[in-house]
Amino acid sequence: MFSRKMAMIVGAIILIVVNVIVLSVNSKRPEPSTGIGKFIIAIVSPFQEIVSDSTTFVKDIWKHYFFQVSVSEENARLNRSLKQVEEKNNRLKEVELSNERLKKLFAFKETLYKRVVAAEVIGRDPSPWYKTIIINKGSREGVERGMPVVIPEGIAGLVTDVSNIHAKILLVIDQNSAVDALIQRTRARGIVKGEPSGRLLLQYVQRKHDIHVGDIVVSSGLDGVFPKGIRIGYVHEVDKPDSGVFQQLAVTPFGDFEKLEEVLVVLDPPDQPEIQEP
Amino acid sequence: MTYVFHILIGFCMVVFHTTVAPNSSLFAGFYDLLGVFVIYLGFFRSPREAIPFALFFGMVMDVFSGGIFGLYATAYFWLYICVLGLTLFIRKNNILLLPVVVLFGVVFENIVMIGITALMDAGAAIPESAAKTVIGQAVWAFFTGPVLIVAIKYVDDTWEKFATARAKEFA
Lengths: 278, 171
Known about the structure:
Chain A has 278 residues and is α+β, with helices and mostly antiparallel strands. Chain A has helices at residues 4-28, 35-66, 69-104, and strands spanning 116-124, 132-135, 148-151, 154-162, 167-171, 178-183, 189-194, 200-206, 216-219, 231-239, 246-253, 262-266. In chain B, 75% of the residues lie in helices and 0% in strands. Chains A and B meet through helix 1, helix 2, strand 1 and strand 5 of A and helix 1, helix 3, helix 4 and helix 5 of B.
C-alpha cells in the first residue's frame, strides 16, 4: 500500500514530532534529570577528576618550578590577600549600609552564610553555548541541589545535579541562570541574567534609579537561594531608553569563570527575607 | 567487544571535552569530537552499533551541559541520519570527501543545537559570537576531522581483527 519512500517520510515525520515533544517537555522542567544525571556523573566524574588532577599537577610543575618560582608564588599570595581584602571591604561596605538602614527599620534580618564546603572544579561544560562546571564534592559532603556556590570574588552559581561525590553547578553567567540583585549604592533591585558572551545583564531595574558605570551589583537575598550582599559584578553599560518602565544594565562579573579552579558551596540556605522597598 | 571499545573511546572523548579542552588555550574553540565519531559511525558502521551510541553519548553530554536535556542526543541522532543519507549518494571510501563531510557535520550539529536552544529555551539568546565560534570549529574540523576519522577507522579495524582472532582462539 505504501511505497518504501513514503514509509521513510512518514517515519521521519513521526521521529521529528516525538523529538520535538521530548525536547519541549524537558525545556519546561526547571531542573535536569535526576536518576540518569546522577548515574552518569558518578561514572564519568572520577575519570574527570584523575585527568583534571593530572593536568593541574603538570601545570603546577610548569608554573611553579620551571618558571619564576618565587615571583609566581609571591604573586599568587598577593592575589589571594588582595581578594580577601576586597571581599572584606565589600562586607564592611555592606555592613555599613546595613547599619544605616537598621536605624530606620526594625525588622532587619542579616542573611550571610555560615557553613560552607570547599570544592575543586574537575570538569566543564562540553558545549560552547552553556556554562556549567563539575565539582569534586557531592551529597556525601552535604551538597544538595539548589545550594548556592560562591567564590572570593562573589557569586559563582547554583547546584543543579548531585551524585554521591560530585555535583554539577550552573554558573551565574549561563543564559539559564537568574539571580535577584541590588545595586549596592542605590539599592535598586533587578534580576541578573547570564549571557552567552559570558557577561551578565541586570534587567527590570526601574528607570527612576540613577545608576552609573562602575556601580557594584550584589545579591539581594530575595530569591531565597543566594545569601544577601554577595558581590556579583559591576555595571559597565547603562541602557536607559527614552520611554518604558525599566532600564537595562550590562554587568561584568568579578569572577573569571574561564579560570575557575576552586569554589565554595554554601550549605546553610539563607532565611527567606521580607521584601523591602528600596 | 566492539560496543565496549566504542564506549571506551566515547568516554575518553567526553573526559577530553570536559576537562582537557576547556583548560587548554590550544583547544579553545575546538569542535565536538563525539560529533565526528558519530560521522565515522554513520560512514563505516551499522545502525545497530551507531544509533545506541549516538543516543547514549548524547545523553552523557547532556548531563554535563547546561542546555535542555536531550539537546546533544537530538543533534547526534539527526547528524547520524544525515550522514547515513549522504552515504547513499557518495562513495564511503572516498577519503577526499571526508573534509567536506566533517565540515558539514560540525556545522549541522551547531545549527541544530543553536536552533533548538533559540526555539525552545525560554529566555535564551543566540550569542553574538555564534558565527565566529561555528566558523572556528569548522576550520578545525576541516583540517583535523578527516585525520581523526581515518585514525579511528584504523584503530577500530585493528581492534576488530584482534577481537575476532581472540574469539577464534577461544572457540
